[in-house]
Amino acid sequence: MKESIIALSLMTALLGAPCALAQHEKLAAPNHKADALVYAELARAPDKATAKRNPMEKDPDAVAAGQNLFKQHCSECHGNAGYGTEKAPSLRAEEVQSATPGAIFWVLTNGVVRRGMPVWSKLPEPQRWQIVSFIKSLGAVPKTPDKKRD
User: Fold this and answer.
1) In a domain, 104, yes or no
2) Beta partners for 112?
């Protein structure tokens, strides 16, 4: 009986942890003031950059490859599903999802160093476009009332 209770407790803890982490990621409320400054960088992309089309947009493997790269390079700050964390804003925000692929590529390439977004120009260009494909695949999430970040 004692072993059953211990096993049940251990199973509950192991199964519940990922759910709690995923839920925390989704519920992290944006810091609108700081996030707005980062989102504003998308509007600062030069017209030439904004007009660039994603050469990977028709590649059926680009989103999956971009997701793998995102997990390696971006999820630490933006969260595994792109909802944002205390370190970085949501990539599902309307400001990002309505931006052109070229503008997202430009920010990814040049970073927003004074706001904590690193420069990723050393990442090969095709890989940066794959990350753009993944980001655009996330889709926008409707805005919700602010909730206190943990």
Assistant:
1) yes
2) 117
Determine the structural domain holding residue 104 and report its residue range. Answer: 30-138
- How would residue 120 be classed by pLDDT, with cut points 50, 70 and 90? very high
What domain count does the chain have? 1
Q: Give the confidence band of 21 by pLDDT, cuts at 50, 70, 90.
A: very low
Whose CA is closest to 95, among 56, 24, 143?
A: 143
Q: Could you tell me if residue 126 is inside a domain?
A: yes
In a domain, 116, yes or no: yes
Backbone angles phi and psi of 50, in degrees to 5: -60, -35
CATH of the domain at 48: 1.10.760.10
- Residues in CB range of 60: below 8 A, 6 or more apart: none
**pTM: predicted TM-score of the whole model, two decimal places:** 0.74
Q: What are phi and psi of 20, to 5 degrees?
A: -65, -40
Residue that is written with structure tokens 């400001």 in the block:
95
pLDDT in tens, 55-84: 999 999 999 999 999 999 999 999 999 999
